[in-house]
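Minutes, project check-in

Agenda point 3 was the complex the collaborators sent over. CS summarized: two entities, 616 residues total, and the question is how they sit relative to each other. Sequences were read into the notes so everyone works from the same version.
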Amino acid sequence: MPLYGALELDRVVARLPRMANLDTEAWTLPGTEILQLAWEVGRDSARLLPRAMHPAIPPYATVTVARFPDTPVGSFTLALLRLAGRAGAHPRGLVLGGVATSESAAHALRERWGLPVAHGEVTFRRYHDRAVATASLGGKTVLDAALVAPETISAGDVQYIASVTLAEVTEDGQARVRLVQVDSHYTFHKAERGRPHVDRFLADAWNAGGLALVHPISASLTTADTDLPQIRFVMDPEIPVVRGTRRIR
Amino acid sequence: MKFGLFYELSVPRPWTRESERTVYRNALEQVKLADELGFDYVWAVEHHFLEEYSHCPAPELFLTACAMTTKRIRVGHGIVVCVPEFNHPIKIAERTAVLDILSGGRLEVGTGRSATWTELGGFRADPDLTKQTWDEFVRCLPKMWTSDTFAYEGRFWSMPSRTILPKVYQRPHPPLWVAVTTPGTELDAAERGLGSLGLTFGMFAEQEKRIAEYRRRIQHCAPVGEFVNDTVATVNFLYCHEDEKVGFETGRRMADTFNYLATQLISAREVYPTKSYQSLGLLPQLRRQATGPDTSSQAGEGLCFGGPERIIRAIKGWESVGVDCINFLVNTAEVIPQADVLASFRLFAREVMPAFGKTKPADEGGA
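CS then shared the predicted structure for the full assembly.
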């Protein structure tokens, strides 16, 4: 059978988001601009993946920067680092770390969806020859990356995989670490594709110490209606998801 | 109806020095028996880097070994990747000609373009261009086999006039096919006079519609070769057992394992948005059609596992929608013991094949 993740959960428990409950109400997020950059990463990235999941072959990670113009907490921009893997037979991106431009957004993302997001600065600028994103925490730049050489493609050509995130949830009155599935839907209106380029990436700031963005795969820039959905599934991070998945609704 | 074997040569972890050798040896033993029992084809994939799922990057070598130990069964590239970063077209023409000679004219040549980032990225091939390179390769290949000398100036490759040697043994040349995973590729096959080498399971109604359109279009094709290969093959699992329940459960375990391994790989579309890969390719098709919403397969329309009667019904179903040939995956990741695989073949030949007018061949003839 395939390889499994090798995350030592004890090492990360203290910094995981704590979810208030699993009854999260969905947010509808119209008119979202999304920049997604993908790179292959090293085999040793399996140490960041819970034992419930399998590494993708080859392993890859994405940086996603999304500008939400209209949310219940106002407009904000969010940058996420995800490590791709497989939950059973399903492609999933494990959210390792994130930066949001609004304190209230960061709080909501942690508490309602279990996303490990900190408050910081995120910029997202569009030029004719590139789209550039930066993120900083405490005044320190932790990401400076871009999509270069954009070309228009059909919006129907794009797909983004669903996310999972490690968070502390309360089950049967007890605090437990769970993998929480956040499977946003996308209706794409515009899409461009280019090459990913990275000038600065501080892995530690994304809870991904040692992760290097090695071989560029692709980059996309889209406009889409999307959402942050109700939580449907949670999984035990220590056992294969085919045995450890619980349906919430 | 013709029957074939379809080999991915999957090798489960943990890997030892003997793991791959065991899988290859088991497959060769299966092919030898299949030849004796009257199976028509053995196909082998070309895949690279697909851990556990397929350790078969050099199908021409495996197929040569098959040809050397058999008499009748036809040996098929299922498929050769027609992307220049993977294979130079001259080398394809040369290698296939050698295999056709060594097999005594038993070669079938499936063509295709790869569907995973795992492979395309590994060779640094451009996913946008693979349909175009495939078209160029397929147009050239029959001419390289049959012309005294060949010269070419194309977009993706070129060569001055040379004599490409050796020439294929079959006249005018081996049958050509294209791998069909994405709906619509069967129409590419029809318009070029190529056989449709189906690699997805599909459902009867969907397949019937697609096959009917293939048959209609191939009547008016511009064949790339010197003859039209008006043949539709599909792929299936095979596990035949006297006990219906044992056969079904064992077959389902094989299908689930195949599905599970397949989905660990990265389809081109997952990471590289392009119109060249509109569907998710073979792997998710298998997940959607051969198995249920999670990782467990359902009964599956037309899947060939269970007792002989059930398998006959399934094959009759495929026959009724116009399928000419079914190629079977007979083991995945060695989940079925070799003795049981061979017993499944024997039972299939004894109880199922006669229902389709096939009997065990006499011990003579062949190459």
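Noted in discussion: Residues 2-356 of chain B form a domain with the TIM Barrel fold (CATH 3.20.20.30).
Follow-up: revisit at the next meeting once the mutant set is ready.
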